[in-house]
Design a protein that fits this description.
Among the domains are: 31-117 and 127-148, no CATH class; 419-453 and 476-515 and 527-664, no CATH class. Residues 1-5, 118-126, 457-473, 520-524, 668-683, 716-727 and 731-744 have low confidence and may be disordered. It has 761 residues and is mainly β. 31% of the residues are buried. The protein is built from eight helices and 43 strands. The longest helix is centred in the last third of the chain and has 43 residues, at 678-720. A five-stranded mixed beta sheet has the order 21-22-23-24-32, with no helix packed on it.
Length: 761
């Protein structure tokens, strides 16, 4: 076996061809657009106004104002793991600390580089400033053994030390200046166990892992530590001793300070949260509440308490829903007690933002008052597994922001794409105007991230990878990407610069009758007050809605869309909302189709924008495999696995229909349809398959019994004498004759094209 493996060698011509392919077809990544895959951590710099997202594959992306983006990838060839566990910004310094799951700590820095480049048009040399993310240093392998057990981290305000909580309950110190780890724990759990109050010894037998470490907002010498097994400790760093200890009845998940350090909050595994007075030893617990109780609830994983501009507390937490009813839901809840409102109907604002994927982390962007008594949260950023959501906390209704970047292109599975270059300005303005109407429900406030500077390039030749952040807003050469999705939607993306915002979304499912499951628990949905948030929805109501082909002419504003069930739309811009009642033009019906049924059209109300002017339903309703548009003669051609047709969308008339199937198979199918023997054959084949399966079961049982008997007989023969050598029976390998592929695949139309030529008279 191995001699064939070792002795076999690829032909030399293949090796030469492979080398030639590397020289001629070298691919390199230019930029990263959309939402990163498999995110794992997020951090925010409140001075530079930047956010950073880390992934499980070691990708790091930094975002600021629309158009500013930096990317970095941890070295794959390095021995350390690339799965990012924690991210921390050294505020205002442009430095970033990255902690991986394998226990390695990386220090990254944002640097400016000046280069001299000459434009192609006027040969003028100018200074171009590019921004790059560089790695400064990495921790050694000895420290990684200890840091593998990291459960929580806290960066002290002096930016010189990093407190790391471990799974065994110890807290170690990592020095950022010399980038080394102290081997001895600065807060060992043995010391805490000796100082636990006597009345709590039975409730706390072990501290458990360090779940949360937070530094005091005003006193840098104090930190708050939350241990898994119901223990909360206020620790004094200079004296290396505890000030106060609190023991709760439930396990701790997360802690946070609020009210300028006078109070703190804790959330727990039973779905409850507690509010504490930080200056009290006895009766420190001010309030405890299970928001979605009293029934058993899921774990509340994180909590934040912010003081709003009017002095009301805003409580933000993830999880905590009832386990029996909402165990599959993912939510972040915002509860605001309006203590200053006299109207009791508006005493509480409560929204449970409902997402389709799990919550990784969340934080708020604040605008604190000068005395620090008010946090005044402006925005809430929620990182999810498949998307990111920005919520406006200043507007009373708490709407979401329209994302200028980080859009989840795969919110619904992408089936087909079309890229358009040099889109004319009139079409682009129409598209953006109609798109703004679709986003009326979103926040009107300015984008909360304003960090980063953008240097506009004098020519397109300066565009390269992630160092260039944006193009000029007045650029006349626009590029639009169209994506067709499984749910029957078409999305228009502006890919002129690196941001890739969503311009417009067209839905074709509004034109069809779709059987949707009835919602019987409508009354129960009033509590909790869920609000569907985010775009990610991987589930489709009907697989027949999937978009297969897209063709767009920006000069005539004509869009042709073909679907999975043989439906072809013709869309044009309309300034007013209309009620559509479109007649369906069907294709040839001389073929027996055993697949899905065609879509049923319904009358619907469509808002201004792209409105369908005609719908063609092909028969058989097979998936469209080819599409071509010629707007000069107002005609398009469409092909399937059974043939192709030409349709004039101005006159709503079929010009020609051509079947590509074999005439013999077509006649046989029609004969079968006339005789009505298909159902009989299906019934006979079902009975035959059932009969054969039962025979196999009986045969298997008899073979098992005979094998047992043969084994016993062979044992007796072996005991009596040597067994004769058996010559293996050689089986002749027959040559398998090549069979042609299915007739349906041979008949499939792969490509259609309108060509201009001359006709001789």
């Amino acid at each position: 076996m191995f001699k064939f493996k070792i002795g076999r060698k690829q032909p030399e011509d293949n090796e030469a061809r492979r080398r030639l392919q590397k020289e001629l077809f070298g691919l390199s990544k230019v930029c990263d657009r959309g939402f990163p895959s498999r995110p794992s951590a997020i951090a925010y710099d409140n001075q530079l106004r930047l956010i950073v997202i880390g992934t499980q594959t070691g990708e790091i992306r930094i975002y600021g104002q629309p158009g500013f983006q930096l990317s970095f990838s941890l070295d794959v060839n390095n021995s350390c793991s690339c799965n990012i566990h924690h991210l921390l910004f050294l505020n205002g310094s442009g430095r970033l600390i990255v902690l991986t799951t394998e226990g390695y700590i990386h220090l990254l820095e944002i640097n400016n580089y000046h280069s001299h480049e000459t434009t192609n048009h006027d040969s003028v040399t100018g200074n171009i400033t590019t921004v790059r993310l560089d790695r400064i240093c990495t921790s050694n392998e000895d420290d990684s053994i200890c840091l593998k057990q990291t459960q929580s981290i806290c960066l002290l305000k002096n930016h010189l030390s990093l407190l790391i909580g471990l799974e065994n309950g110890d807290i170690v110190l990592f020095n950022i200046e010399n980038f080394s780890l102290t081997t001895k724990p600065i807060i060992p759990n043995e010391i805490l166990m000796k100082n636990i109050p006597e009345n709590c010894h039975g409730r706390v037998s072990n501290t458990g892992s360090v779940q949360s470490i937070v530094q005091h907002p005003t006193n840098d010498e104090k930190i708050l530590i939350g241990y898994k097994n119901c223990l909360i400790v206020q620790w004094d760093l200079p004296s290396n001793s505890h000030d106060r200890m609190y023991v709760y009845k439930q396990e701790i998940e997360s802690l946070c300070w609020y009210n300028n350090g006078l109070n703190f909050a804790s959330c727990h595994t039973d779905g409850s949260y507690a509010l504490w007075n930080a200056n009290e030893d006895i009766n420190a617990l001010e309030n405890e509440k299970k928001q979605y109780g009293p029934y058993p609830c899921m774990t509340m994983k994180k909590i934040l308490v912010k003081i709003m501009r009017n002095g009301d507390p805003l409580i933000i937490f993830s999880g905590g829903l009832q386990r029996s009813s909402y165990s599959t839901k993912h939510s972040v809840s915002c509860v605001c007690e309006n203590e200053h409102e006299h109207d009791h109907s508006d005493r509480q604002r409560h929204v449970a933002f409902d997402f389709t994927t799990s919550v990784i982390d969340f934080f708020t962007i604040d605008k604190p008052s000068s005395d620090g008594s008010r946090d005044d949260p402006q925005s809430l950023i929620i990182l999810l597994k498949e998307e990111i959501v920005f919520v406006d906390l200043v507007t009373d209704s708490w709407p979401s922001y329209r994302l200028p970047y980080l859009n989840s292109i795969h919110a619904c599975p992408v089936i087909c794409t079309t890229l358009l270059y040099n889109v004319n300005q009139q079409f682009y303005k129409k598209l953006t105007n109609y798109g703004n109407i679709q986003f009326d429900d979103y926040s009107d406030r300015k984008w909360p991230l304003t960090g980063g500077e953008i240097n506009y390039c004098p020519s397109s030749s300066n565009l390269n990878n992630t160092l260039t952040n944006s193009l000029d807003d007045g650029c006349s050469k626009r590029q639009i990407l169209l994506t067709g999705h499984e749910d029957g939607s078409i999305q228009f993306w502006d890919v002129t610069d690196i941001s890739m915002p969503l311009l417009y979304k067209l839905k074709t499912n509004e034109y069809f009758q779709i059987d949707q499951p009835s919602n019987d628990d409508g009354e129960e949905e009033n509590w909790p007050p869920f609000r569907k948030t985010g775009f990610f929805d991987p589930f489709s109501d009907d697989p027949r809605l999937a978009i297969q082909k897209i063709s767009l002419c920006t000069n005539t504003d004509t869009l042709i869309v073909a679907g999975q069930a043989g439906q072809i739309f013709t869309f044009h811009f309309s300034n007013e909302s209309v009620d559509t009642n479109i007649s369906v033009h069907e294709g040839c019906e001389s073929y027996v189709w055993k697949g899905h049924e065609e879509m049923k059209i319904k009358q619907c109300h469509v808002s201004a924008g792209f409105v369908a002017s005609s719908i063609v339903q092909l028969f058989p309703p097979a998936s469209v495999s080819a599409l071509a548009l010629c707007s000069d003669i107002q005609t398009y051609a469409v092909g399937t696995a059974h043939g192709f047709t030409l349709f004039n969308y101005k006159q709503n008339r079929m010009l020609t229909v051509k079947c590509t199937l074999d005439p013999a198979s077509l006649s046989s199918t029609s004969a079968v349809q006339a005789s009505g023997e298909t159902s009989l054959n299906r019934g006979r084949s079902l009975k035959k398959s059932l009969r054969e399966s039962f025979r196999r079961l009986r045969k298997g049982r008899t073979l098992k019994k005979t094998m047992i008997a043969v084994n016993k007989r062979s044992e007796t023969i072996a005991a009596s004498g040597p067994l004769e050598e058996r010559v293996p029976v050689e089986r002749q390998v027959e040559f398998r004759e090549f069979k042609p592929v299915d007739d349906q695949i041979i008949s499939m139309v792969r490509c259609l094209y309108f060509a201009q030529t001359y006709i001789t008279s």
